[in-house]
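Lab channel / #folding
Pinned by the channel admin:
"Please post every new chain as: sequence first, then the structure tokens as a reply. Keep commentary short and put observations after the output so the thread stays searchable."

First post following the new format, from NK:
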Amino acid sequence: MTSTTSPVAVIHAEPLVRTRTVLGEGVLWDARTQVLYWLDIMAGEVFAVDPRTGVSRAYPIGQHVGTIVPRASGGLMLAVVDGFAAFDPASGAVRMVARVAHGRPNLRFNDGKCDPAGRFWAGTMAYDGAAGAGCLHRLDADRSVHAVLSGVTISNGLAWSADARTMYYIDTPTRVVSAFDADPVSGAIARRRTCIEIPHELGLPDGMAIDERGMLWIALHESGRVGCWDPHHGRLLAMIEVPGAKLVTNCAFGGADLDELYISTASIGLDDEALRFQPLAGSLFKARPGVRGVPAHAFAG
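Reply from TO:
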């Protein structure tokens, strides 16, 4: 188990956009346009900000939206309630690409990312958080959808090693990061094992990003932190403190040099008393972790 007694580097985040999202998520730096995207799942909105100009925009999607990724042919892709959709930031248009038959009611898509080959992975969860109700899905470039991992409760962070042969995955209530052997050609995964255990005092693991060294940066829900772990040894290396917002949900590297970490938070379930102690709940934050990330992979279809 990860030790919390060993000294680690402490980094402080600062608010970038003071917007009280209900469930801020899906942070994406689009390296092609140098624009930062994130979303509010429950409000069904995607947000964009150009850090060079400060110009921001909100796009109503018309339904709950779990995550956002680049698309190699242009524009972006979304995981929405019942499948995968193309999103055009220029017009705001949303068009379904592949529908997913959930097999039971009251499910929605949550977090997701593309692998290095351009396959779009995203998982589902029950609105009431029912244990084991969700599934991790994979949308291939030919637009075929594959159910890859069943029995998931809250499907969250994903990342791949530089050689694309290891996939890292978080099902939040397990409090672990799982590693899988990944086939870069077929997309098949196998040999699941635990590579990181998150101690209870550090909250719940949520979204995740990987840096150029192969270290994992994990949003720690309920703790107001993002932790950096070495997945090869399960060792905690650094901690980012997020002020005034405990419900940290996701993170992604961005900026012109990919040396900034953007962090989303939520305000869902917080009453007025809780918000007095979390005045920045739902805001988007920025930190400089001292390392560079890797560009987001784009959907190939």
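NK: Residues 1-5 have pLDDT under 50 and may be disordered.
TO: also worth noting, Residues 272-277 form the longest helix (6 residues).
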